[in-house]
Fold:
Amino acid sequence: MTERPDGDFSIDTLLAAVAVGAGGAVVPPIVQTSLFSFDNYKAFEDRMAGRSDDPLYTRVQNPTVAAFENMVAGAEEGEAAVGFASGMAAISSTVLALVKPGDRIACVEHVYPDAYRFFERLLRPFGVDVSYHPVDDFENDPDLLAGVKIAYLESPNTVVFQAMNLPKVAAHAKRHGALTVIDNSWATPVFQRPLTLGVDIVLHSASKYLSGHSDTVAGVVVANAELIGRIRDLSLSLLGGKLAPFEAFLLTRGLRTLGARMRQHQSTADRFVDNLSAHALVRNVLSPGPNSVPGLTGRSGLLSVELDESVSIPDFADALKLFRLGVSWGGFESLVLPAQIALNQAGEENSLQHFGVSGRIVRLSLGLEDPRDLWADFDAALNLSANRK
Ligand SMILES: *Cc1c(COP(=O)(O)O)cnc(C)c1O
Structure:
């Protein structure tokens, strides 16, 4: 159904390419079926014997899901992709397809909190060792990855947004035969294409910018055909965390505007970074800019600020009128998430506590509203919540 257009096109062109369907439809249909039947014995047997790759069963193969997978593979400049029911399904399915007891994973500090819990709560008890390292060590210690099976990366990482020199880290990993896996949800392929920088596997929480409309939870993994075949066969078939055709349809719709949305997020974020950096009530702005590391070409709308001690963070949050309070990010709507709320979360130690994130930090997801309105709201709330002596 959806073939990638032939030629060396930019991401905007690739994602806008028409998926010509029945009667010239420009949008792929939602193929809402569990199984695909066969006309005759021979066709059925050929499929089961691996002599054809006709769709068989939606747990592993579905044309609407394939349309989404092809779009993301094209955007990331990868050979193949596989969709999952969530970003966490993409992460756990990828890692579980690649490790066995006794293997070691080297993970970047400030990794996404549920990835940290997956490593600690599920993988470690199965005999997989996980160690955590600062961005600088990945870059500057050429032997950090000796004996490591997977280097698990996020660049930039979560809440503190430290970006990493990916070509350098990928070269260290290659020398030691370690596979590199990166969570590219923040930058999206519009601003960073890790496969072109030497990384082996790229994954996304598609719930964020790839969807862009806060109506879908999904994940996707992109790599060469051999690795995707392994992940599809082992994890998708056996763990079964498949992406639903309807969610895949929503994602193909969201992806059409990814480039336009990312440029708008960037322009709002640039304005915020300038204004925040000059603000008397802001101690620090955490947001990697374009070209701060090789291969990162833009700034997304997700960033953090460290607020002055004189600001009451609960008062600030309650004074906001346009920004809403909530988890997740990457949608059309602007959100704030005070780190203090995550630090006070119930349950076992979380990654923000483990990695020592400051309670003065507030994470912002800048949406698609007019940047002047957003800044006026943010600035007014800051000034209202400061205790000036
Ligand atoms: C949200 C998020 C995830 C998890 O994705 P889900 O789709 O919520 O399962 C993974 N990585 C990062 C960086 C995220 O922000």
User: Anything to note?
Assistant: The mean pLDDT is 95. The longest strand covers residues 302-307. Residues 268 and 372 are 9 Å apart (CA to CA). The radius of gyration is 22 Å.
